[in-house]
Amino acid sequence: MTPITSVWATGQQQSRTQRRGRYLPESMKHPGKMLPSIAAQVIDTYTQPGELVIDPMCGIGTTLVEAVHLGRHAAGMEYEEGWAKLAVANLAHARRQGATGFGTVIAGDARGIARLLPDLVSRAALVLTSPPYGSATHGHIRATRDSGEPGIRKWNQRYSRDRANLAHQGLPVLLDGFAQILSGCGELLRPGGVVAMTVRPYRHRGELVDLPGHVQKVAQRAGLVFADRIVCLLCGLGHGKLLNRASFFQLYEARKGRARGLPIHATAHEDLLVFTKPQPLNKTASTVQRAADPT
Question: Which of 32, 67, 113, 294 could form a disulfide with 74 if both were Cys (CB 3.0 to 4.6 A apart)?
């Protein structure tokens, strides 16, 4: 497959609108959720009904919910037990709404995912996930004009306070852990299966970190073959212009950065990195080659 950069219009509706009624209201508390439209388009593009989709860091279960609604089966792992329980509840909600696929969630460390899910080895058609961006991400924010209280109030901006969570680690440890996760997922993936990851750059102490570039190298070292890089829009398209979907939190952080002289803008897209698991070598051809070898 030759890598071709494409653009997907996945931000035509705001995240809150995409989730309304489809997910339990508590789901909005997670600050690092995958956009449902991205998950749905990836699953529809790279799998067929009845196939298995895995998310090793499933959070509140966006990948799983979209998979079962599309008639696929899904398995997720989540380090934080609270989010894992919410993912289970969201799957139950999807079943009540008529989803035909089946899903399961395990609370655990995805660095050992192949050991924890031995029955799924070589069965998955797709692994869809996103690496952690740090212990604090988007969250919610309210200014004085809205709250009537002085200052800026933030909440739901942290998805983990457990120091063992990869989200709390520096970049080298984070990438090493993610490499272990991808290696384990590779064992669960069938030959020719697809790994897709949403990822975006982030700033650390003012410096821009090219997380997509780092993740691409880690995935290739884990034995995956780079296939495509897709731009998934978080903004909308309409009337000949981009429609801003950035949250007040994101706009506030961008304004703070520009006030410090940093060229920060609200994020308008995520990269979707697509990889494949190589097919095994043709056993017949290799046998013929050995038979012809005089040694």
Answer: 67
